[in-house]
Amino acid sequence: AKTAGRGAYRFYSHEQTSSVRERTSMESRLRKAIERGELRLNYQPQICLDTGAIIGVEALARWSSPEFGLVAPDKFIPIAEESGLIIPMGEWILDDACRQMQQWRQQGTAIPRVAVNLSALQVQRGDVTALVRRALDSTGLPASCLELEITEGYILQDADRAIEVLQQLRDLGVSIAIDDFGTGFSSLSYLHRLPIDRLKIDKSFVQEIGSTSRAAQVAQAVVRLGKTLGLSIIGEGVEHPHHADALREWGCHEGQGFLYAHAVAPDQLHLLAPFKRKP
Ligand code: C2E
Ligand code: CA
Ligand code: CA
Ligand code: CA
Question: What is the value of pTM for the model shown?
């Protein structure tokens, strides 16, 4: 926690005084939120577009604050990243997701994998492999049930180092997905060298499917690229049946989005119906 405090100080020294105060108070509230157990993980299903079966769930953090109500991760994850709080928070997230997944398995819920978001700061730290191994060991979850989602931005910062870390993670037996793919100005020169399993097409592209916009063409190009590289592809932000139909036609067989379900509390997951598509 002390290291996090120092990191925060460095960051805030570049900011305006008023926003410093605001951020610092958010940070200390967030710190307490972790201690008080106000953070929760909700789970959004990932769907096989051919059969409608749930083939995975993505763990998405929620902060239920007595003071602010439900705070969206877009609000508190950036603060956690800038302050270094994402390190203890991310450790809790990883543990909790693995524990939950293992519990589902023991209850006989047939969900093949859980996807957990790793922030760049977590991966840059040397010990992310040890962190993941510990989470698997302590919960008993088989590595093959865990997928880690990492954004492109991180990889571009230092591709050689990223490749090394991703390989170590993959050696544990977990799978790796590149999140928000297409938004990070991917360099095709490194993509084929990355030890990864899946590309996650960013929702901004998926949502343009059916329009004449270039973004829709990017979605199709990503599917083609992924197939060429022998990677799995999942489309996120699938909101309309025609998004799913187009993805499937192009050869992307996995999707995630409000068309199927929002992220739900773990005890609600069993209530979700199988997502059959219309014939
Ligand atoms: P993400 O990893 O890209 O997660 C997908 C986001 O898209 C989620 O928002 C999800 O609720 C939303 N989404 C899913 N389907 C649809 C759809 O059909 N339409 C639209 N418009 N949105 C959809 P959420 O839960 O608010 O999370 C936002 C971001 O916060 C995540 O983006 C991720 O970057 C970050 N985040 C969330 N949980 C964690 C976490 O546990 N660790 C880390 N490091 N980051 C997290
Ligand atoms: Ca994600
Ligand atoms: Ca994403
Ligand atoms: Ca995102």
Answer: 0.91
